[in-house]
Amino acid sequence: MEIPPLFKQGASARVRVTVFALISVVMLVVDARMHVLGTLRQALGTALYPFQTVAMIPRDAFTNSSEYFSSLASLQKENRELRQQQIVNAQLMQQESLLAAENAQLRKLLDMQQKVPVKSIVGEILYDARDPFTRKIILNRGSQQGVMPGQPVIDDVGIVGQVTRVFPFSSEVTLLTDKDQAIPVQVLRNGLRSVAYGRGQTGALDLRFMPSNADIQKGDVLVTSGIDGVYPPGLSVASVALVETRSADAFARIVCRPLAGIDRHRQLLILLVDQNLPPRPEPDVIDEKSAKLFKRRLRDSTRDNGGEETTPAPKDKPAEERKGSASVTTPAKPAGAAAATTTPATGAKAATAATGAAKPAAKESAR
After folding, report:
1. Residues in the chain with pLDDT < 50?
2. What is the pLDDT of residue 138?
3. pTM to 2 decimals?
4. For residues 56 and 44, what is the distance between their CA atoms, to the nearest angstrom?
5. 3-class state of residue 131 by DSSP
6. Within 10 A of 267 (CB to CB), how many other CB atoms are there?
7. Is residue 312 helix, strand or coil?
8. Which helix (H) or strand (E) segment is 242 a member of?
9. CB 150 within 8 A of CB 230
10. How does DSSP classify residue 330?
11. Nearest CA to 204 among 156, 270, 254?
12. How buried is residue 240: exposed, middle or buried, by Cβ count under 10 Å (0-12/13-18/19+)?
């Protein structure tokens, strides 16, 4: 029985594998020794390249889409990180600027501390006072550091204020522009002395009770005079900003602007000036006994000069004599005698009393 062609069997699979393997080995040896298959390989690669590109399109599309989404997520994350880093850098830059300004201010205070002849310490402003109608600040230096009431406070330019209250670890400073603050000053150009008063919230100073013809001009610099014993002399205070004179006013209107950074700096210099000043002399008190003795001596001197006793004026009589003068009639003396007893010590009042005494004398003689 003959096998149909569809089911005809040729060489076995083992034989074919062996044959093709031998052919491959021969071709490898020939290509390695003679290099005759390089051109054929290039031609086959060029012919198969379009098919390779078409076959790799799905893979490339999937790879590109995944890379797109991953790169977008990474860019957004990087953008957030850069923004956060920018905020941190901005804060660091502001702090650096603040520290640089503070360092410059401290250097200026150090130079000022070397120029001032008295001992001083650096204080930092903690906060403003609670009263909105005053110009006061609180410093972080107190009695434990040697601060006392009345000591001046300055910056690198001039006077800022004065210590008014002291606590163990803090102190209250009244600024120069407070409405209750006054400081003796003098004009640097000609040495004219005056007193500068604060104007409160306006941040300016007034030179009060200055005559209209005073030699002061706009732009003059005012410094401490030192006559009060509190502020060292020669420290800058203010500059004259406005001078107004009117013919109808006896005093000029003079407005000054402080030279120191009253509202700007945070570090200030406290001058540890010794406030142990000698006490003020007490006013002379004359008791009633001394006053009577003085009047008796005055009458004796008047008697010696005029030759006869003079009746004291009603103002010079004791209280008991003035009370009884309404009921007791005093014999009048001639007008000439009264006029003769008038001395320069009694003055015009004594002469008036003598004239009044002459009128009763005339009435008595008429009776």
Report:
1. 307-367
2. 92
3. 0.52
4. 18
5. coil
6. 16
7. coil
8. strand 236-244
9. yes
10. P
11. 254
12. buried
pLDDT at 364: 42
Taking the mean position of all CA atoms in its chain, how far away is CA 169? 20
Helix axes 38-55, 57-115, angle to 10 degrees: 80
Local structure of 256: helix, strand or coil: strand
> Other CB atoms closer than 10 Å to residue 338's CB: what's the count?
22
Q: Tell me the C-alpha distance between 253 and 176, whole Å.
A: 19
Residue 278 per-residue DSSP state: P
* Confidence (pLDDT) at 305: 57
Q: Is 118 in contact with 232 (CB distance < 8 Å)?
A: yes
Of residues 129, 132, 200, the one with CA closest to residue 171: 129
Q: What are the C-alpha distances in Å from 325 to residues 121, 187, 318, 328, 358? A: 71, 60, 11, 5, 17
What integer pLDDT is reported at residue 238 of this predicted model?
A: 93
Distance CA 338, CA 154 (A): 67
For residue 211 the two structure tokens come to 């005559």
Locate 255 and state its tokens: 């407005």
Instruction: Give me the residue label for tokens 């009431």.
Output: 149
Residue keyed to tokens 């600024």: 175
Using DSSP's 3-state secondary structure scheme, residue 255 falls into strand
**Segment holding 269, helix H or strand E:** strand 267-271
Phi and psi angles of residue 188, each rounded to the nearest 5 degrees, phi first: -65, -30
Is the separation of the CB atoms in 268 and 155 below 8 Å? yes
| Euclidean distance between CA atoms 237 and 256, whole angstroms | 9
Hey, is 350 helix, strand or coil? helix
Query: What count of Cα atoms within 13 Å lies in the side-chain half-sphere of residue 177?
Result: 19
Amino acid of residue 179: K
SS3 state of residue 264:
coil
Helix (H) or strand (E) holding 239: strand 236-244
Inter-CA distances, 63 with 56, 193, 310, Å: 11, 90, 135
